[in-house]
């Protein structure tokens, strides 16, 4: 969760449930009970991770709905459920990236934040289509996942990649045609994403640079889902002991959707 995009986390968590195939169970009830226990543990790892929560719930529901008569049938149902969920995640990501290509014009200069595999796929598709792009990437302190994005962009032909510190976004936004970022989730009228997204979107709004968010429609959640931030170790920010002050390290921030120009998902485009 600290070093990968949300879709990758959802897929890895789904595949992790396949380890249950190697265990012995006395009954279908025991198997389903263990499945729910393990899935619940994965969900509790980050209850605000929309993709993780929805995919885990879907897998458990599909296995229970299969109404297996034997442990072997239940195991087969788990295999089928995991494969289906993984395919849905990867298909949604691919379609969202395809839809986002309309926002990546040839010769454009864009700015992105953190690391989004969907954003990277959209850019890769655009340059494979023959477009040339200039991309500014913020570091995304304190985990510096923007560096991972910059390295990925540097391997793409037709991309002129630049890594900048988070605080320099306002300096370079005047050169940009669009801000292009991923999302952890959108709950009602709030985008939750890696910390640093809010100041970037607010600055872009002030400088009249449109902000486009891209991701799976499964990340658009509403009633019944409550986002809770993750506050991580101060050692990520400061290696030496903090004497006389505290170190705050929130993983995500909240961006009002009225700062966004558009949200692109596998289901289409929503404009604000």
Supply database-style keywords.
Four Helix Bundle (Hemerythrin (Met), subunit A); 18% strand; 272 residues; seven-stranded mixed sheet; Rossmann fold; single chain
SSE topology:
Elements: H1 6-16, H2 28-45, H3 50-65, H4 71-100, E1 109-113, H5 117-128, E2 133-138, H6 145-154, E3 159-164, H7 169-172, E4 178-181, E5 185-187, E6 190-194, H8 197-206, E7 211-214, E8 220-221, E9 252-256, E10 262-265, E11 268-271
Parallel strand pairs: 1-2, 1-4, 2-3, 4-7, 5-8, 7-10
Antiparallel strand pairs: 5-6, 6-9, 10-11
Beta-strand fraction estimate: 15-25%
User: How many domain units?
Assistant: 2
What is the highest CATH level, the class of the largest domain?
Alpha Beta
Biggest sheet architecture = 7 strands, mixed
- Category from helices, strands and their pairing: alpha/beta
């Amino acid at each position: 969760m600290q070093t990968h995009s949300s879709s990758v986390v959802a897929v890895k968590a789904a595949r992790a449930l396949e380890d249950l195939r190697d265990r012995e169970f006395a009954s279908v009830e025991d198997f389903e009970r263990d499945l729910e226990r393990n899935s619940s543990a994965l969900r509790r790892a980050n209850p605000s991770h929309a993709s993780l929560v929805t995919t885990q719930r879907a897998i458990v529901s599909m296995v229970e709905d299969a109404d297996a008569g034997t442990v072997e049938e239940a195991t087969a149902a788990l295999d089928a459920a995991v494969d289906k969920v993984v395919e849905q995640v990867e298909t949604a990501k691919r379609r969202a990236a395809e839809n986002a290509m309309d926002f990546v014009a040839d010769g454009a200069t864009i700015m992105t934040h953190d690391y989004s595999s969907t954003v990277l796929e959209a850019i890769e598709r655009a340059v494979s289509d023959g477009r040339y792009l200039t991309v500014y990437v913020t570091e995304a302190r304190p985990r510096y996942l923007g560096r991972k994005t910059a390295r990925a962009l540097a391997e793409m032909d037709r991309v002129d990649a630049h890594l900048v510190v988070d605080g320099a976004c306002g300096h370079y936004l005047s050169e940009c045609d669009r801000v292009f970022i991923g999302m952890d989730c959108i709950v009602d009228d709030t985008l939750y994403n890696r910390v640093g997204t809010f100041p970037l979107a607010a600055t872009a709004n002030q400088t009249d640079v449109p902000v486009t968010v891209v991701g799976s429609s499964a990340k658009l959640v509403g009633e019944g889902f409550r986002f809770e931030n993750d506050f991580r170790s101060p050692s990520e920010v400061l290696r030496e002991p903090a004497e006389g002050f505290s170190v705050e390290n929130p993983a995500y921030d909240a961006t009002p959707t009225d700062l966004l120009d558009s949200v692109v998902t596998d289901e289409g485009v929503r404009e604000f």
